[in-house]
Amino acid sequence: MKTREYVGTFFSKPYLFRRLTTLSLEEFEILREKLEPAWKESERKRLSARKDRKRKVGQGRPYELGNFKNLLFITVIYLRTNASVELLSLLMRVDKDAIRRPVTRILPLIQDRFIPDTPLLRKRINTLDELLKDFPELKDAIFDGSEFPIQRPKHRQKQSYSGKKKRHTKKSVIALDKKTKLIIGVSPPRRGNIHDKKQLEKTAWDKQLPTSVGRYGDLGYYGMRGWHLPYKKPKGGILTRWQKTLNKRFAKERIAVEHGIRGIKIFRRVGEIITIKSDELFSTTLLAAANLSNFKRLMRQGLG
Fold it and tell me: Which residues contact 204 (CB under 8 A, 6 or more apart)?
């Protein structure tokens, strides 16, 4: 059986396909339709950039996995699992470069596709399509830090060691729209020994939002001016019954950001021990996982 035919067999088994990708066949097809025009344009630019090119654009050796549908499929599996490129190449019966090349070229197309256009994101590489046209303006954002375990670094290990997790990590702050429950931003990752509050103070990442947007957080952001935070138990004192009631209500609202983080970490490439060495590739992979999480929420809320 040829490689392209073999990869095509996965699309004939809906249950297995969903287990491998977390997407239904219908959702995957919509994702392909939205990304394929951007893929064709990026490939045209990449191939046209070669000054010493002798063949016309479109000629030459095709991808071993076949069409864009197959390439996107292996990219989603790359995000969903923490399997090495070598293991994925054995699974798909191709060379490891046939996995690595399309993955590194498709990930940038996903990384900011389904996050609403807010000041927390850098300049977009894709224009926001009609999928998000009915979304209201951002009013309230919930922030929370999340740590991603990494392999023990060879140098400056103390800077990456998290006393909370008791291991070496990278840390990012996740921002979530309180109303739509969509992830609206992921801060650049920092070394794991930095506190959530200090990370925001140093990067001023949250200040890119207008002052009219409400900011919600846990007690890790205690002392941030203008933020909505739960009541902190005073030293040697107790909280009143009313303060405890308000804290419970606050926790029910803030739990949405924990669900958002879980939606990112279900893609085990960033949810388990990070084996990606490049900070730039890790940031791209993290944003791609956040965007796929948003895409699933949009589709399952009937907003796609």
Answer: none
147 — phi, psi (to 5°)?
-110, 140
Domain membership of residue 248 (yes or no) is: yes
At 98, list the tokens. Answer: 């046939």
How many angstroms separate the CA atoms of 289 and 81, rounded?
A: 12
- For 163, other C-beta atoms within 10 Å of its C-beta total 9
- Rounded Cα distance between 263 and 76, Å, is 14
Count the helices and strands in the chain (H runs, E runs). 11, 6
pTM for the complete prediction? 0.84
Q: Which of 164, 166, 169, 137 is nearest to 150 (CA)?
A: 169
Over range 224-251, report the average pLDDT.
88
- Place 145 in a pLDDT band, splitting at 50, 70 and 90: confident
What is the CB-side half-sphere exposure of residue 19 using CA atoms within 13 A? 5
Q: Answer whether 30's CB lies under 8 Å from 304's CB.
A: yes
Say if residue 86 is in the same domain as residue 157: no
Q: Which of 227, 168, 167 is nearest to 197 (CA)?
A: 227
Domain hosting residue 276, numbered range:
130-300
Q: How many other C-beta atoms lie within 10 A of the C-beta of residue 59? A: 10
HSE of 35, CA atoms in CB hemisphere, 13 A: 29
